[in-house]
From TrEMBL:
Residue ranges crossing the lipid bilayer per the database entry: none
Native species: Sulfobacillus thermotolerans
Protein name listed in UniProt: Uncharacterized protein
A Pfam family of this chain: Peptidase_A4
InterPro entries referenced in this protein's UniProt entry, alphabetically: ConA-like_dom_sf (IPR013320), Peptidase_G1 (IPR000250), Peptidase_G1_sf (IPR038656)
Amino acid sequence: MRPLYWIVALGFGLLTINANPVISWPGLSPQSDPVSIPAPQPFSLQPPSQGEPLEMSRNWAGYVNSSATYTAVQATWRVPTLISNGSLAIWVGVGGAPQRRLLQAGTLTKKTAYGTKTILWIEGLPQPLKPIARNLPDGAPVHIAITHVKAARWNLTLQAGNYRQIFHVRYPLTAKSAEWIVEDPLINNKFAHFPTFHPIELFYAKAQTSTGVTVTAKQSMPIDLRIHGAIDAAPILVSNTTFAVSLPAFRP
């Protein structure tokens, strides 16, 4: 089976979009339409059934759907609590497989001896990552939706807690894939240390094709993250539109 080594670099810089200042979490003004995230539900971490197709990546774990052209993708999660030091990104995107252009948005959490910091960000490769909000607390609800408007115009809706903002992006892209990903990011052209964490759940993992068909994580290809050949993180379906990404220590 052909491994998929999609590498996504999370560098810090500016993406050409409608200008918006980087703001800290405390003091954000409430916005409309707060997202509702289900309470975490008990689920059984079972490996994929025998013979189920599976792809591998050096730095991705999650699901990808590449059976159509896509006009929207979304997912919801909580800012993770990292157990050990390291960096971890969670994001949704369109494009990237098999093309090199990728429009994405998500969170990046970094834990060091001095504490943990999480930012909300957007990125359109090859432009570097643009931080949108800083200092998101552990457990904060996050909802991301990327929607095609027309021609090269896309809307990126980012919601974290009571903060909600829509960014209007000009990004030429015919999206041949949709992704829901937990990532060991490249930062300054170097893989970050991949931390340990409790299973991360992504809810409402759905995408829409150019023909109006809704596809879900269940209909998509699972991707294992493998470092030095061993599984370091793997996705497990909870329902049609919900999955968890877990470490081997949390698998039976």
